[in-house]
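Cross-check.
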Amino acid sequence: MSWRHWITLSALLSTAAFAQDELQTNEQDSSIELVKQCILNEVIGGDGKQTLDELRKKCSALEENKQLTALDKRQAREEVGKKNRNVITPHKRNYILPLSYVSHPNDRPFDRFDELTDEQDGDTLDNLEAKYQLSIKVPLFDEFSDEDQALYFGFTLQSYWQIYNSEISSPFRETNYEPEIFWINYLDPKNVLWGDEMAIVLGISHQSNGRSQPNSRSWNRIYADFIWENRGFVFSFKPWYRIAEDEKENLLDAKGDDNPDIYKYMGYFEFSGAYRYHDHEFSFMTRNNLNSDNRGALQLDWSFPLWGRVRGYAQYFNGYGESLIDYNADVERIGVGILLTDLL
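Predicted model, tokenized:
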């Protein structure tokens, strides 16, 4: 970057900082934050053809919008990641729960350890384990005529680690991998169906635990995700259609459906919501199969400030399908740890 660009950037950020001192309300502060983000986006990833006056007009226009939503702010922050090759953009939450208590971990994949460790009561696994999630996304194509549309590749890894179980060499009890490709469209405010802001996502997802038979679990889905915000509350309704697989003649066959009854426990949709209060974020997720047996799941999350980018994180889960190996097991978990990236 030339010295002229640095002078221009410093001047624009100084102007934005001066304006921020003059504004007193939270909405105005958020507006200035978005103007700064716009300037950084253009300096890092712009085409370099815009004049100083054009850049000022483009970014200052954002300041006219005093009702910035949580979705607006996340979208603006992600623009930097999209244009900076040294930045990885988060997809879902990224966290680790080093202290996580689960009511009854699934011993089935570890049946043989009973014979090797003189365990006669089947209590091979510890109730206390670590759980962590890594989730990122990268844009595959964002040159649509509408700049609020983009095509992404996302990848989420979630793992359950028996870190305190030295008797069986502290194995990873289960790891789930979920690559997906999805298109997202942030709707123009004039086309929002309900709420203050809305986005529509269409995607295809593969999720598996990467194991051999008889502990292999996987499924493929086509999904839609309707995301909307109303007065700071962000909601998501995500229905899906499972892509059918051939039925197995033998449980140990490599090809075929590993878990044909997964819909009875995971259902056909997920409904979630999040709200940010000052520097605390609260959220929920729920699933239900809408049958008389009322199988489903509930997850509650709370993140709070600790220091710098590191945040505290508490998670509670109750129901079916926390992991693929436990898709048909009713478990309860509570965990605490640290979080690197939030939803909002």
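The mean pLDDT is 83. The chain is about 20% helix and 40% strand. Passed to J.P. for a second look.
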